[in-house]
Backbone:
């Protein structure tokens, strides 16, 4: 019994949220039960991915699951390798406190019980698609999961009953579909010249024949880069992100900024390293493109974030900047750079989730969106603002907080690859990040508060904030096990030449 | 030059797919009508579907059904067609969702023009 559950774990973690999502549609009236089920499923998946992580950690080989029992070139494979398991662990960990934060808190924001239940359906579909992206080893499967994630993201963005939300969702839908069409085109080019869809087989075939079809490989590379660039809001393809992430309900913003964009980045990482591989990336200078695009995104995103006056919009632009670090890290092709990237991805996921949740709590308590209007809120809502401060420190990369370790390894990796430029950009980006986040903290703590009755949110929300904030601290103080796993993942990515 | 032309005539489905892809992308990016944006997306998706199906097709091939009669016939590759069936389902759901959003926007703003909606929204926020 136990061993069969273990062998089926890669597919169980994907199916559990998808199954629960469809059960929820029948329970719309009983909102307590719905919320309980969502949190319960989240915890189950977290346990499952913890189990998978332990398994991969001990055995040092990837756990492969063949759907329907069909072996690799014909069937669809799920592969719980170090990269997938690392992201699975991060995504399933963040999704639990975020769903806990929405308990008893959503119906005001989305309007009514039925709409709340629908929100949870989309939330679970998005989580299921994310976990699927982590473990899938098949190119067409990547496209399907990307589309499931995109549609549920759009649903989450439009879940507030406001015209602004519908507009943001429409822009997002159109641009994201443009992106996924390009991704499908890129997959098509690969399929045409290799005849395979399984990542391992495509990799072997592609490395054998790429020299006879360089134009097709190049077109496929560019389709993939632009497609995933739109999806993960790489500057200047980020235009949909600020509206979408700032008009969504707070738990949705947290999951969209914290996890959803990372899912696409993990897919890009897997496609670049596991499908095209190290040799082709070098041959087509993809790493240089990624480092340049990432640097521009870091600086431009941070400057745009500084110019925003609304709190949630500032956080949304900050995501654009942070995505830059990850894209840049994907381009630093050595073990230190890649493990730093993955660690940074984890650190940003928890820090951005706590920032968005805290911002949402402050905005719903005070009814004010602008940073300048939130003066003195730190003394009225101590827990929320403390969590926000920890999140800011984590994102900026102060030592002992999550962002520091990731940035440190990114800098080490870039120096090892022999260029100073990324290191300089990372440091400049951190200074700008401190400028746009600490000014919020300053306004909240050191300016006189108006005479209003602003209160910390309820117990479930406080627990969610504290769990995420302590995760930021744990990643900063005790990074070793996570760094070890990230290092394994980096070696796994670089092992395929 | 003649080999170039030959390549184009032999591979004409891909050529059409590229033209459609460009038409679709231009429509999405330059038109301000929400409906036209949606049409552009559909055209782009169709272009990719055509590319896949052309890749799976073999001229003179038959459908890959083993019924005992046409043994030894050339079969087309069924996988791209099957994949594109999934792609079409995805595209239909995207269209349905986008149309629902357009309806909601039309109810609020009374127009389906993206520029006009942006103007109206700014007027509201200015007040």
Residues:
């Amino acid at each position: 019994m136990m061993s069969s559950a273990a062998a089926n774990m890669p597919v169980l973690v994907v199916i559990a949220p998808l199954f629960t999502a469809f059960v929820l549609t029948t329970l719309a009236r009983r909102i307590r039960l719905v919320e309980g089920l969502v949190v319960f499923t989240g915890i189950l998946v977290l346990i499952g991915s913890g189990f998978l992580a332990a398994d991969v950690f001990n055995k040092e080989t990837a756990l492969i699951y063949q759907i329907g029992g069909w072996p690799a070139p014909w069937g669809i494979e799920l592969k719980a390798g170090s990269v997938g398991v690392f992201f699975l662990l991060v995504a399933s960990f963040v999704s639990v406190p975020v769903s806990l934060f929405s308990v008893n808190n959503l119906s005001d924001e989305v309007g009514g019980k039925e709409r709340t239940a629908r929100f949870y359906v989309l939330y679970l579909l998005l989580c299921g698609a994310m976990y699927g992206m982590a473990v899938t080893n098949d190119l067409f499967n990547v496209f399907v999961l990307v589309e499931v994630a995109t549609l549920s993201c759009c649903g989450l963005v439009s879940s507030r009953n406001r015209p602004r939300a519908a507009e943001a969702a429409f822009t997002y839908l159109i641009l994201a579909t443009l992106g996924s069409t390009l991704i499908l085109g890129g997959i098509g080019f690969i399929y045409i010249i290799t005849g395979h869809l399984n990542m391992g087989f495509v990799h072997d075939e592609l490395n054998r024949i790429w020299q006879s079809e360089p134009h097709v490989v190049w077109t496929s590379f560019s389709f993939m880069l632009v497609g995933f660039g739109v999806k993960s809001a790489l500057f200047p393809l980020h235009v949909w992100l600020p509206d979408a992430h700032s008009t969504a309900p707070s738990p949705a913003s947290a999951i969209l900024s914290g996890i959803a964009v990372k899912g696409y980045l993990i897919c890009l990482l897997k496609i670049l390293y596991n499908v095209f591989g190290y040799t082709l990336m070098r041959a087509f200078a993809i790493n240089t493109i990624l480092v340049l695009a990432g640097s521009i995104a870091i600086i431009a995103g941070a400057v745009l974030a500084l110019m925003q006056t609304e709190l949630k919009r500032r956080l949304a632009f900050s995501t654009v900047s942070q995505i830059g670090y990850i894209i840049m890290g994907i381009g630093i092709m050595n073990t230190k750079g890649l493990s730093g990237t993955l660690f940074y991805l984890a650190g940003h996921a928890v820090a951005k989730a706590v920032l968005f949740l805290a911002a949402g709590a402050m905005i719903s308590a005070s009814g004010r969106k602008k940073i300048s209007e939130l003066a003195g809120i730190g003394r009225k809502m101590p827990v929320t603002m403390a969590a926000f401060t920890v999140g800011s420190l984590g994102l900026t990369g102060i030592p002992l907080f999550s962002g520091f370790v990731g940035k440190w390894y990114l800098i080490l990796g870039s120096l090892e690859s022999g260029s100073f430029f990324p290191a300089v950009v990372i440091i400049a980006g951190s200074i700008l990040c401190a400028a746009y986040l600490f000014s919020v903290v300053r306004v909240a703590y050191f300016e006189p508060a108006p005479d209003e009755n602003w209160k910390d949110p309820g117990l479930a929300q406080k627990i969610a904030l504290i769990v995420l904030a302590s995760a930021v601290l744990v990643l900063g103080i005790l990074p070793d096990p996570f760094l070890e796993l990230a290092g394994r993942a980096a070696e796994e990515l670089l092992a395929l030449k | 030059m003649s080999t170039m032309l030959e390549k184009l005539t032999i591979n004409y489905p891909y050529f059409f797919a590229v033209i459609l892809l460009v038409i679709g992308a231009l429509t999405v990016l330059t038109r301000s009508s929400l409906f036209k944006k949606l049409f552009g997306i559909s055209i782009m998706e169709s272009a990719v579907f055509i590319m896949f199906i052309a890749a799976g097709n073999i001229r003179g091939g038959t459908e890959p059904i083993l019924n005992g009669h046409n043994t030894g016939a050339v079969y087309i590759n069924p996988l791209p067609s099957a994949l594109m069936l999934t792609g079409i389902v995805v595209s239909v759901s995207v269209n349905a969702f986008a149309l629902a959003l357009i309806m909601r926007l039309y109810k609020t703003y009374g127009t389906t023009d993206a520029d006009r909606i942006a103007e109206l929204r700014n007027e509201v926020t200015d007040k």
User: Anything to note?
Assistant: Chain A has a mean pLDDT of 87. The interface with chain B takes residues 140, 143-144, 147, 151, 154-155, 158, 163-164, 166-167, 169-170, 173-174, 177-178, 181, 184-185, 188, 191-192 of chain A (CB under 8 Å).
